[in-house]
Amino acid sequence: MAAESEPSSSSIELVESTKPERKIESGIIYLSTIPPTMNVKTIRQFFSKFGQTGNIFLKPNPRTSKKSMYYFTEGWIEFKNKKIAKRVASSLHNTQVGGKRRHKYYDSLWNIKYLHKFRWIHLNERLAHEKATHDQRMRAEIAQVKRETNHYVKSVETSKRLKRLETRIKKEGKEWKDAPSTEIRQIEIKDVVNDNNNDAGAADMSLLANIFSTK
Fold first, then answer.
1. Which of 20, 48, 52, 109 shows the smallest number of beta carbons within 10 Å?
2. What does the alpha-carbon distance between residue 145 and residue 140 come to, in Å, rounded to a whole number?
3. Cβ 49 vs Cβ 116: under 8 Å
4. Where's the RRM domain (predicted)?
5. Alpha-carbon distance 184 to 170, whole Å?
């Protein structure tokens, strides 16, 4: 009976090479505050000491002035290995930033959280939603300003026409209270019609009411 032969080294290497490699998942940490004067470059330099970083996004501070040192309000950092991301979040959270004492962020504290099952695409979706919401709010505010401006202009024009009518009435030696109601009503109705054509809302006639009550 022939003895069984041992598997050759080449066959072992072949088996090992065909075994699928386990994909290393990335992980994302969240910074609820960004130390003063820090930007994307300094953030990457700091965190790259712990492992390979990928995408980094820092949200700009809308209230930043020339004297302000806080350029960003919050940030997200992607590590190529989620184990490193977890370790960074747990070890650096609530610790002093440190570095050189001359740096403005020396005494600041890190506020870091690891985001479980969070992917960079989720952040992109969130930012896109925030931008769409902001744009919609801005359009609504601009439309409101236009409506208020148009109403103000029409009110001024109405006031001028009524003043001209009052002047004419007084030149005729009559009192304003004796002004023909039909002419006043024509001015009022014309302005209401114009408002309804340009704006679905009813016109505010408070200015007219004040004028009518004045002699």
1. 20
2. 9
3. no
4. 27-101
5. 15
Spell out the per-residue pLDDT of the chain, length 215, in tens.
555 555 554 444 544 555 566 788 989 999 999 999 899 999 999 999 999 999 999 998 887 666 667 789 999 999 999 999 999 999 999 999 988 888 888 889 999 999 998 888 878 777 777 777 777 777 777 777 777 777 777 777 777 777 777 777 777 766 655 555 555 555 555 555 555 555 544 445 555 445 445 44
> What is the number of alpha carbons within 13 Å of residue 54 lying toward its C-beta?
14
User: How many angstroms separate the Cα of 180 from the Cα of each of 19, 64, 79, 191, 193?
Assistant: 99, 60, 80, 18, 21
The token pair that represents 151 in the structure block: 């109403």
Owner of token pair 């940030």:
75
Q: How far is CA 172 from CA 5, 93, 123, 167, 168, in A?
A: 129, 84, 73, 9, 6
Locate 165 and state its tokens: 């009518």
CA distances from 59 to 34, 40, 116, 148, 202 (A): 9, 10, 20, 34, 42
Geometric angle at alpha carbon 197, from 191 and 202, rounded to 5°: 65
Q: How far apart are CA 8 and CA 87, in angstroms?
A: 42
What does the chain come to in residues?
215
